[in-house]
Design a protein that fits this description.
The structure is a homodimer of 632-residue chains. Chain A has 632 residues and is mainly alpha-helical. Helix content of chain A is 71%, strand content 1%. The two termini of chain A are 49 Å apart. The interface between A and B is large, with 81 and 81 residues.
C-alpha cells in the first residue's frame, strides 16, 4: 500500500517536473529512482561536469599550469563520477531501454574515448612526444547527454529540425557569394588595384570568396570596398547590391527560416509534453483508483489524495493543500474522477502567492507601539507615492555624485551619506511591510536592492578599513565597490511604469536564457579546444614594450593591421582568451589568424560563423521575439 | 446615361487600384479626375520629382558643377510642374476637402519655402555672401505627400504607430548605456590606460557614452575593448555582458516591438483597404442599379455591366469578360445583385493566365513541316529533363571558363561558343513553345535569359568590333560584358527545385521592396543634404600620391587610422559620395568625422543609426519575415 502510494507520487512528481524516464516499478527500483532524482546527486553531477570542463584552464596550453598527473587525476575522478551516474541510471530503467537509448551509448563512448585518449596522451607524454588531447572536444557533449540536459537536448533537436530548410537557404546564399566573387574577379582582378597594405586586390578567387563572406558579417566594411571605390565611385554599386542581397535579405531569410521552424517545433514540443504529462498522471490515477457503489467511473478518495500530495511536495502547507483539493473536488463529494486528478500536476506548479495579512513581527512584539498613530503614519508615508519619488530623486543625485571625481573628499564622503539613505529605505520598508512578504519570491527588486546595498556596505567598510590601516586601497575591492555603486542606480527603472513591462518580460525569460548559455558553452568549448590545438602560440601577447609587440611575436604579422591595432591578446593561447576571442568572433568575424597559419584556417572561422551567428544567434533572436509576442 | 456610366467606371477603377480620392462627381470634374489619374501625367510627375532630387548632383557642393542660374531654372520648372499638379488636384476634389488635407498643405508649404529659399539664396549669391540651400531637405518629402505616394505614406504611418513602443524600449536602452558608461568611467577612468592612438582611455563620460553606443552597432569591436582587456583579462567580462545585453537582447527587443507593430498595423491597413474598396463598389452599384419586377433587391443588368467593364479595362478580351460575368452571375439570370457586383474590383485584379493551346506560328505557316516526326521529336527533346540538365552542365563549364584567364585565346574565343549555345537554347525553346506563352508575364526566367543573352551578344559584338577596328577595348564595355557573362550563370538556380520556392518568394516581394527603396531614399536624401552642409570639404580625397593623402587634406586627421585605412573618399563632398557614405554608416557606424568638426557632430551619426538601423532596417526585416511566413 505504501509502496504503491510512493510509485504514484513518483509519477505525479515526474509529471510536475516534466521528467520523462521509463523507470522500473519494483519498490526497490523506485527508491533507487528517487535517489537518482535527488537534488544533491544532480548538483554533484553538474559540479563534476563543470570541473571536467574547467580542466581546460590547467591543461596545456594552460592559464594556470599544473602537473599533468594532477589534472589527469581530477579527470579520472570526474570520469568515475560520470560512470557511477550512468550505472545508477542503468539500474533504474529496464535493461533493453538502457541499451536502446542513444544518450547512454553516447556517454559510454565519450567515457571510453576519453580514457583511451588519456592513456595514449600519458604514454606519449612520458616518452616526450608531442600529442593532442583530442577527446577534450567531447567533454561538453556530456552536458547534453545526461538525462538532466533535457532543455539543452530540446534546443539541439530544434536546430536539427531546422537544418534541412536552413541548408536550402544556405546553399543559395553560398551560390550568391560565388556569383558575386566571380563578378568581382572579372571586374577588379585585371585593374592592377592594390589593397591598403599593398597586396594585389581581388585577384585570387578563393580569397575573394572569403573576403566577401566576411563582408556579409560587415566585419571588413568598408575596407574591402575602398580600393575599388577609390578607383571609381561607380564600383560602390557592386558592394551596395552585394550587401543589400547578402547581408540584409539573406540574413533576414535565415532568421525567417529559423524562426518559422522554432515556432513549429515549439508547438510540437509543448503538445508532446502535455501528452506525456497526462500519461504519467493517468498511471498514478490507475494505482490509487477505487470503485465506489453507484459510480460508473473509478475515483480517488480525499484521504489517498492527501497522502499522495504530502509525498510529492512535503513543504506544502495544509491550507494550500486544502485549496488545491477544493479546486479539484468542485462539488465537494469527497472523491475526484480521472479528469480532475490529471490536473494535479499543473495545479502543483501554480505558485499561490499567500496574500495573508500576517501581522508584522513588531506588531506581535508590541502591538500598542506598532499600531500607535505615529507608527501608522510612518507606514503610510513609506507606502506613499511621494516616498518613491523622493528616493528616485536621491538616486539621480547619487548618479551625479558617482560621475564626479573621487579625489574630492566631499564626493568620497558623500558615499556614506547615500549608503545610509539606502539602508534607511530598506529598513523603513521592512518596518512598513511584513518581512516574509517583502522577501517573497516574486519581489525581484526587493531582493536585488537588499543584496546590492548590503554588499556595497560590506565592501565599502572593508575598503575604508584597508585604506585607514594599510594606507592603500585594494584595486579589486575598489572595483567591486564602484560596480555595486552603479548597479544601485538600476533600481530606478522599476518605478517607471512603461519600463516595467519590458523588464518583467526580460526577467521572466531569464531562466530560459540559461539554456542558450549552455548551448553557447557547448559550441564555444568545442571551438575553443579545436582552436587551441590549431592556433596556440602563433600569436603572442607582450605586456611590456618588448620588440615582439609590434608583430605579436610572429614575423608574419610584422606591420599588419592586426598587430598595429594591438590585437595580440586576441589569441588561442589559453582557454580564457579563446573564449573571449570567440565572443569577439560572434560579434564581428575579424581574424588575423589566416596570416599566421594556412589559408585553410579560414574554414574554422567560416564554420564558426555559420554555427554561431547564422544558427544559434538567430534561434536566440527567435526566442526573444516569441517571448515578447507572448507578453505583449 | 453615358456620364453616369463613366462615373461608375471611375469608382470601380479606384476600387481596383486602391485609390482613395474624394473627387467631385460633376461630369466635368470626373473627366478632369480621369486626366489626373492618366499614367502619362503620373509618370511626368515622378520624372520631375526625380529631376528635382537629382539637382543635388549639380548644385554646390557639386559632382558636375553647372552655373547656379541653370540649376535654379530647372528647379523653377519643377516647382511649376508641382504647382500645376496641385492645382489640378484642387480642381478635382471639393474645396473644403482640399484645405483639410495635410498632404496638400504640406506640398504648398514646401513649394513656398523652396521659392523663398531660392530668392534668398540667389540674392546672397549675387552679393557673394555664403548661404545655405536649406530647403533642399524638403525635396524628398514631395515623394511622400503627392497622392501617388500611398505606399510610402503607409510605411511612414506604420513607423509613426510603432514609435511610442519603440520609445519605451529606446529609453530603457539609453538608460542601460548610461549605466554601463558610468561603470566604465569608474572602473577604467583612473587606471591611466591609453587607447591604441595614445589618447587617454575612458576618461570622459560623454565620449564613453558615444563609444559604447558605437559598440552596440559592433563597429568598433574589438578596438574599444582592447586597452582594458590588455590591462586585465577580467575586464573582458564587462564588454561581454554589455554586448549580450545591448547588442543581442535590446536589438532583438527592438525587432520584436517593430515586428509586432508592423503585423498589427498591416492587419488594420488591410481591413481599411477592404472597407473603402467595398464603399466605392457600392457607390458604383447605386449608379447602375435598376429595379426589376418580382425582385426585392435592385440589380445590375448584363448589358450595363458589360459597358462598365469595357470602360474600366478596355484591353480585356471578350472571352475574359464573359468568364468574369459567369463567375458573378452564377445562376445565369442575366443580372447580378449587390453582393456579386462588389466582387468585381477583386475579380479584375485576378490575372487569368490564358492556357489556350494557341497553335505555334510555324505550325500555321507550314503545318506539315512543324508537325512532321523530326520536328515533333525535337520539341519533345527540348522539353525533356535531360535538355535542362545538359544546359545546367554547360553553365557550370562556362563558370569555370569565366574564372580562367582572359588572356588565353582559347578562353577568349570560347565565349563565342557559349554565346552560340545559349542563343541556340532560346531559339530551340521558342521553336518548341508558343512565343507569346514563352514570354508571358509570369515567366520571369525566360525574360531574364533573353535580355541577358541578347545584351551580352550585342556588348560582345561591340567590344570585338572596337578591338579589331581601334585596336583597344573600352574598359566600360568590357565591364558590362563581364557582368552579363556572370549574370547568365544565375539561371542555374531555377532548375533546382529546393531553390525555386525561395527565389519565387524573393521575386514576389520585389515590388514591395521598392517602397522600402523610396523610404530609404527619403531618409538618405535628408541626411545627405544636412551632412553636406555640415561636413563638406572637411575631408578631401586625393587621387594621386599627393602629400595631403596621408591626412585626407585635414591636419586633424594626420596619422589617424581614418587616413591610414585610406577612407578619405568617405566624405560628404558631393551627393553621390554622401549616399555611399550613408550606406556604409548603415552597415557599420564608423565615422572619423567627429575628429574634424565639433564632437556634437556625433549626434548626426547617432540619429542616423536610430532612424535607419533601429527603425527602418528592423521594419525591413519584419517585412521579409512576414513575407516568408506567408509563403512557407
Ligand atoms: Na558589424
Amino acid at each position: 500500500q505504501k509502496e504503491e502510494l510512493e510509485l504514484a507520487a513518483v509519477y505525479v512528481s515526474d509529471a510536475q517536473h516534466n521528467r520523462n524516464i521509463f523507470f522500473e516499478t519494483q519498490p526497490q527500483a523506485v527508491r533507487l529512482y528517487l535517489l537518482y532524482n535527488h537534488w544533491l546527486l544532480v548538483v554533484l553531477l553538474y559540479f563534476f561536469i563543470m570541473v571536467n570542463l574547467l580542466l581546460a584552464v590547467v591543461e596545456q596550453p594552460a592559464l594556470l599550469p599544473v602537473p599533468t598527473w594532477a589534472s589527469m587525476l581530477v579527470e579520472l575522478v570526474c570520469l568515475s563520477v560520470f560512470s557511477g551516474r550512468l550505472v545508477h541510471y542503468a539500474k533504474v530503467i529496464p535493461r533493453d531501454k538502457f541499451w536502446k537509448d542513444p544518450k547512454n551509448l553516447c556517454i559510454l563512448v565519450i567515457l571510453l574515448l576519453t580514457l583511451v585518449d588519456m592513456i595514449i596522451y600519458g604514454a606519449l607524454k612520458a616518452t616526450d612526444i608531442y600529442s593532442v588531447r583530442w577527446s577534450r572536444v567531447l567533454r561538453p557533449l556530456l552536458l547534453v547527454n545526461f538525462t538532466e540536459g533535457r532543455q539543452l537536448r530540446r534546443a539541439f533537436r530544434s536546430i536539427r529540425n531546422a537544418l534541412p530548410q536552413i541548408l536550402s537557404v544556405f546553399l543559395l546564399f553560398i551560390f550568391s557569394i560565388l556569383i558575386f566573387s566571380l563578378m568581382a574577379l572579372k571586374l577588379f582582378g585585371k585593374r592592377g588595384l592594390k589593397t591598403n597594405s599593398g597586396k594585389p586586390y581581388f585577384t585570387n578567387f578563393l580569397e575573394i570568396v572569403f573576403d566577401l563572406y566576411v563582408l556579409v558579417t560587415t566585419a571588413n566594411s568598408p575596407d574591402i570596398m575602398m580600393p575599388a571605390y577609390n578607383a571609381s565611385s561607380f564600383f560602390a554599386v557592386f558592394f551596395v547590391i552585394f550587401i543589400l542581397i547578402n547581408t540584409y535579405i539573406f540574413m533576414s531569410v535565415f532568421l525567417a527560416v529559423v524562426y518559422n521552424n522554432y515556432k513549429k517545433y515549439l508547438k510540437e514540443e509543448v503538445r508532446q509534453l502535455v501528452r506525456t504529462k497526462r500519461h504519467k498522471m493517468v498511471r498514478a490515477f490507475a494505482i490509487l483508483q477505487e470503485r465506489r457503489e453507484g459510480l460508473e467511473e473509478p475515483v480517488v478518495s480525499h484521504a489517498f489524495w492527501n497522502q499522495l500530495v504530502r509525498l510529492v511536495q512535503a513543504d506544502l502547507s495544509h491550507a494550500h493543500r486544502e485549496l488545491l483539493w477544493s479546486v479539484a473536488d468542485q462539488h465537494n463529494q469527497g472523491y475526484i474522477g480521472k479528469l480532475a486528478f490529471v490536473q494535479l500536476a499543473d495545479l502543483l506548479n501554480i505558485q499561490v502567492i499567500a496574500v495573508k495579512s500576517r501581522p508584522h513581527p513588531l506588531q506581535r512584539w508590541s502591538p500598542s507601539l506598532y499600531l500607535s498613530t505615529p507608527s501608522r503614519w510612518l507606514c503610510r508615508a513609506v507606502q506613499h507615492r511621494v516616498f518613491v519619488m523622493v528616493y528616485d530623486l536621491i538616486i539621480l543625485v547619487n548618479a551625479v555624485f558617482i560621475g564626479l571625481d573621487e579625489e574630492d573628499p566631499l564626493v568620497r564622503n558623500s558615499e556614506w551619506f547615500f549608503l545610509a539613505l539606502y539602508l534607511l529605505e530598506i529598513l523603513l520598508k521592512l518596518y512598513a511591510m511584513e518581512p516574509r512578504a517583502f522577501y517573497s519570491r516574486h519581489n525581484f527588486w526587493n531582493w536585488f536592492d537588499t543584496i546590492i546595498i548590503v554588499s556595497a556596505l560590506v565592501a565599502t567598510i572593508i575598503n575604508t578599513a584597508m585604506t585607514s590601516v594599510g594606507g592603500y586601497s585594494s584595486r579589486q575591492i575598489l572595483d567591486i565597490v564602484f560596480t555595486l555603486r552603479v548597479l544601485r542606480l538600476i533600481r530606478v527603472v522599476d518605478s517607471i511604469k512603461r519600463f516595467r513591462v519590458i523588464i518583467n518580460t526580460l526577467i521572466k525569460i531569464g531562466p530560459t536564457m540559461l539554456t542558450f548559455a549552455q548551448l553557447i558553452i557547448v559550441v564555444y568549448y568545442i571551438f575553443a579546444m579545436v582552436g587551441m590545438e590549431l592556433f596556440q602560440g602563433r600569436i603572442q601577447f607582450f605586456d611590456s614594450d618588448s620588440p615582439g609587440k609590434l608583430s605579436c611575436g610572429n614575423p608574419a604579422l610584422q606591420d599588419s593591421s592586426f598587430a598595429q591595432l594591438n590585437y595580440c591578446k586576441n589569441n588561442f593561447n589559453n582557454v580564457v582568451s579563446s573564449f573571449i576571442l570567440l565572443v569577439e568572433l560572434t560579434v564581428v568575424n575579424q581574424c588575423g589568424f589566416t596570416a599566421v597559419t594556412h589559408p585553410s584556417a579560414r574554414l574554422f572561422f567560416i564554420l564558426f560563423h555559420i554555427i554561431v551567428v547564422i544558427i544559434i544567434i538567430n534561434i536566440f533572436v527567435a526566442f526573444v521575439l516569441e517571448a515578447f509576442f507572448v507578453e505583449y
